[in-house]
Design a protein that fits this description.
heterodimer, A: 107 residues, mainly beta, six-stranded mixed beta sheet, three-stranded antiparallel beta sheet, 9 strands, globular, B: 118 residues, seven-stranded mixed beta sheet, four-stranded antiparallel beta sheet, 11 strands
Chain lengths: 107, 118
């Protein structure tokens, strides 16, 4: 089965840029979706199909995908961005695969 | 705007069957795929199963032998997980698939905590 690898944690200074990676074999050939989950809340879609933002998601959130790595970039990080972030793809057997999740800390 | 709400017992005994319902308001389940997910304490998100309103299903291979997903009414679908153990303790979520492919999940229900314990 397909596997996605995320760093357990990423730290960023307030106002700086955070980058959360999602590694997978030739992941650039897949479409990657990203979700934000704050404590006690449901996941929220923040990026779909690699780099598209749903309505209501700030422009500070962006995504890219190439080769073996997809990246979620959060510019001008705010305290309210602290959350767990998950990447997600579909594998060849039409099953859903999530990365292990990355905890973002804003210092 | 479509909203989802999970419901079911918050406590299930080991070896018994966990049963949850997802109620969709502001729309019907027609013409969409729907999924169940869970997040165990201290762990990440896990997809459990999906269903199309007409009945097409697919399951996480690691849970397939114990899981059943079904459509109950025009605005409800459900999850049954048999022979539960403490490892099945988690917050369970339902969510709608996008129409576009490859599907993403939006919106999600708020989640319901299910604890497996005597």
């Amino acid at each position: 089965s397909y596997e996605l690898t995320q760093p357990l944690s990423v730290s960023v200074a307030l106002g700086q840029t955070a980058r959360i990676t999602c590694g997978g074999n030739n992941i650039g050939n897949k479409n990657v979706h990203w979700y934000q989950q704050k404590p006690g809340q449901a996941p929220v879609l923040v990026i779909y199909r690699d780099s598209n933002r749903p309505s209501g998601i700030p422009e500070r959130f962006s995504g890219s995908n190439s080769g073996n790595t997809a990246t979620l970039t959060i510019s001008r990080a705010q305290a309210g961005d602290e959350a767990d972030y998950y990447c997600q793809v579909w594998d060849s057997s039409s099953t859903v695969v999530f990365g292990g999740g990355t905890k973002l800390t804003v210092l | 705007q479509v909203q989802l709400q999970e419901s079911g017992p918050g406590l299930v005994k080991p070896s018994e069957t966990l049963s949850l319902t997802c109620t969709v308001s502001g729309g019907s389940i027609t013409s969409y795929y729907w999924s169940w997910f869970r997040r165990p304490p201290g762990k990440g998100l896990e997809w459990i199963a999906y269903i199309y309103y007409s009945g097409n299903t697919n399951y996480n291979p690691s849970l397939k032998s114990r899981v059943t997903i079904s459509v109950d009414t025009s605005n409800q679908f459900s999850l049954r997980l048999s022979s539960v153990t403490a490892a099945d303790t988690a917050v369970y979520y339902c969510a709608r698939h996008s129409h576009d492919n490859p599907n993403w999940f939006d919106p999600w229900g708020q989640g319901t905590l299910v604890t497996v314990s005597t």
